[in-house]
Amino acid sequence: MTSAAGGPVARVLVVDDDPAIRDLLTAGLAEDGYRVDTAPDVPTARTKLASTPSPELVILDILLAGDDGLGLLGDIRRTSSVPVILLTGKGRETDRIVGLKLGADDYVVKPFSLGELSARIESVLRRANPKPANPTRDFGRLAVDTATREVRVDGEVRETTAKEFDLLAFLVNSPRQVFSREQILDHVWGSSSEWQDSATVTEHIRRIRKKIEDDPDKPRWIATVRGVGYRFEP
Asked: Strand pairing partners for 58?
């Protein structure tokens, strides 16, 4: 599954005290390929922001019943760089200015269209996750080309399934960073251990190692971090 931008599924957290808005965005953004979670208040939002996997973008209503949306934005910026799009009232220009100064990435004025919001989400995610100028990641004997979706070892193309390539490319794009199976499920499959067995990741890692490693039992490229997950060793 891909997002409207054609990239991997993004997890979006909608923070709004209006159940009609939450339902509208849950249904509308899901149709565009996003995984949507919601929070009706600041305490719930804090819990979901601290969860694993965490959201990759937050849509935040400035005016929350009994709470301060801008206060939550300030807290987010002190601990995270996750992109935030504000939902604001038509006449609240001062709040919009304060929100942008606090680090919001964009804002949408109510009432808004789903098409406009989806376009803004796409734009913000592109800015937050720019594509590398060179689609080929070359590590000497191993090369991964995201434009042609080819994997080459010593110049020889190694055939991979679509999901095997997506998994390898995901790890390659963050060298030495350790990812849990749950994080890989979320980013590569757009799923979670609640819906899909994390053993799926283990099996795909095993298949990839058979295709790119000289000795799959003593892997050079994809290392197992015991008790945590996997990382790519450049």
From this structure: 13, 84
Residue 59: which of 127, 129, 130, 125 has the closest Cα?
A: 125
Q: Which of 134, 139, 164 has the alpha carbon at shortest distance from 152? A: 139
pLDDT at 90: 67
CATH code (residue 159): 1.10.10.10
Cβ neighbours of 24 (radius 10 Å): 15
Written as one letter, the residue type at 133 is A
pTM passes above 0.85: no
Residues 39 and 142 in one domain: no
CB-based contact 3:9 (threshold 8 Å): yes
pLDDT confidence of 133, banded at 50, 70, 90?
low
Among the three residues 100, 128, 156, which one is the final residue of a domain in this structure? 128
Q: Phi and psi dihedrals of 118, rounded to 5?
A: -60, -40
Domain range spanning residue 121? Answer: 11-128
CB neighbours of residue 213 within 10 Å = 16
pLDDT in tens, 18-38: 999 999 999 999 988 899 999
Q: How far apart are CA 228 and CA 14, in angstroms?
A: 29
